[in-house]
Design brief:
By secondary structure, the chain is of the alpha+beta class. It contains two helices and ten strands; from the N terminus they run H-E-E-E-E-E-E-E-E-E-H-E.
Length: about 150
């Protein structure tokens, strides 16, 4: 019982530290505050969260934090990210998922016209699933972003 409490406390403290770091962080190339929409045709994982298929708004809140908000109940969560810069801006906006069997994990977000994208930190759940599937390289599935949310 105490172990569960300590584990939850550590997770909460880590999330608070990441959120605080993201708020005070300034980046020269990341389009902070960008909001985009995507229609995800399959259920997927975000960290330890299982999210249903549906329409999602993705808010790139800082260089290390993005918010996913779906239209279904309990379909929202934060993802910790790291920026990834390319030499030229992305031609098309897209969300990339890692696929292992019939399980999908959100992996990257690229906004059209931006040279900086976001890589989601690989979750413990994805790492465990990768080991269980004996898959070192997942299949990449791309879903096009819709026009920016207003």
């Amino acid at each position: 019982m105490t172990h569960v409490f300590i584990s939850k406390l550590r997770s909460s403290l880590l999330l608070c530290a990441l959120a605080t770091g993201a708020l005070v962080s300034t980046s020269h190339a990341v389009a902070q505050g960008t909001t985009v929409q995507v229609q995800v045709p399959f259920a997927f994982e975000n960290g330890s969260q299982h999210l249903p298929a549906g329409k999602y708004t993705i808010e790139l809140q800082s260089q290390h934090l993005m918010l996913l908000r779906g239209t279904a109940a309990n379909s929202a969560g934060f993802a910790t990210t790291i920026p990834d810069e390319r030499l030229s801006p992305a031609q098309k906006g897209k969300v990339i998922f890692h696929k292992y069997g019939d399980r999908y994990f959100i992996s990257e977000v690229w906004v059209a016209g931006e040279a900086t994208g976001r890589h989601c930190i690989t979750s413990r759940t994805e790492k465990q699933f990768q080991i269980a599937q004996n898959a070192s390289d997942p299949t990449h599935v791309e879903v096009a972003l819709n026009t920016p949310a207003r």
